[in-house]
Amino acid sequence: MSFDVEAFRAEFSFFQQHPDWVYLDSAATMHKPDAVIKAEVEFYQQHNSNVHRGAHQLSQQATQLFEQARDTVALALNVRRREEIIWTSGATEALNLLACGLMGTVLKPGDRILLTCLEHHANIVPWQFYCQQHGVLIDVVPLTNELELDIAAFQQLLELKPKVVAMAEVSNVLGTISPVAQLVQLAKAAGAITVIDGAQGIVWQRPDMQALDADFYVFSGHKLYGPTGIGVLYGRYELLNNLKPLRYGGEMIKTVSFTGTTLNQLPYKLEAGTPNIAGAIGLAAAVSWLNNFDSAALTAHKQQLFTELYLGCQAIKGLQLLSPQQNNVGILALNIKGEHPTDVAALLNEQKIAVRAGTHCAMPLFQALQLPGAVRLSLAAYNNSHDIKRTLKALEQTVELLQ
Ligand SMILES: Cc1ncc(COP(=O)(O)O)c(C=O)c1O
Description:
The protein has 403 residues and is of the alpha/beta class. The chain folds into two domains: 5-31 and 294-402, Aspartate Aminotransferase, domain 1 (Alpha-Beta Complex); 37-290, Type I PLP-dependent aspartate aminotransferase-like (Major domain) (Aspartate Aminotransferase, domain 2, 3-Layer(aba) Sandwich). Helix content is 40%, strand content 16%. It is built from 15 helices and 15 strands. The strands form four sheets. Strands 2-8-7-6-5-3-4 form a seven-stranded mixed β-sheet, sandwiched between helices. It has a four-stranded antiparallel β-sheet with strand order 11-12-15-14, covered by helices on one side. Strand 3 (112-116), helix 6 (125-134) and strand 4 form a beta-alpha-beta unit. Helix 3 (34-47) runs antiparallel to helix 11 (277-290), helix 4 (57-76) crosses helix 11 and helix 12 packs parallel to helix 15. The longest helix has 20 residues, at 57-76. The mean pLDDT is 97. Pyridoxal-5'-phosphate (PLP) binds next to helix 5.
């Protein structure tokens, strides 16, 4: 099916408001289609009430919309039970919930967990924090010279019998896709619980939880055309049910007295306090809106732009490309020889090209690469060929100016 990028772009008011900007920072956060913004506004204008606790009809309506949103996401991810979808504020909170929730229940002093060298800080720091407290050891899968996960090293590290293996589906710096389906099978065969950080992977390919067979999968709504402040923790029911909650308070309890508290059932047990009701409805709207498009056509369009960008950058003398071209979702990390990434991004900003510079919440990866950072250009399906041409011209001018 052919893809009409201009019709797709017209779904986003942002681009009509800012025709002069080239937005290449979608890995940080994506723009939201009007359908998502409308769903949130409509909730506040027409249905606003708290959920699960009102005796009145408005609250019942809000509850229905909120729980329908959970059903939409549950269906999209092909989970076994709707209670396996837990609302969080984003991938970061979901990973904190897991690191906290598995500690002391699954993970005991002297146990090991396995992470990889290309993780975002959100999939490192929570583990590190709780592992240090509980005497759990962390091993790290290195990269090969081709900047891919070293599968042989992964297999060797599995021999140390980690209880948990947590890894990103897609690198937020390099854009590379890890073979998570294969790695999940290897980890499971070694007896580990598997956690997939889908923050960047979710927009590349909608995962099927039953086919992927991972125990946990996390993502943030705002990287899937949805609102900020909402995310999802998917977990296998029995494992979720054994997690220690990260937060305690209202909603997550069955009974409370000063002598003790009994906890509610899933999913509420892990969702203390008033949830981000409008956010959940907005995320469900994003998922439903995406269903209007052929995902293969969206991906093909993005890949075509990425090739145009990649080849164009390769032809500019003075640019050092870090990201591999193959097996890439559309993220290009690069540097100008001898120049600081922040300076490069600032010059691009002057030409209204929005990119990100720095270590991209992945300091250990940059330590392994022995680089101070990089400029990251990340594409989404709403980018067009005009964006790529302007970016290449701006990069050319930036190199000229600096060198
Ligand atoms: C791979 C990866 N994991 C986790 C996160 C954290 O996501 P959030 O800040 O939305 O919680 C990000 C954000 O950039 C990411 O790219």
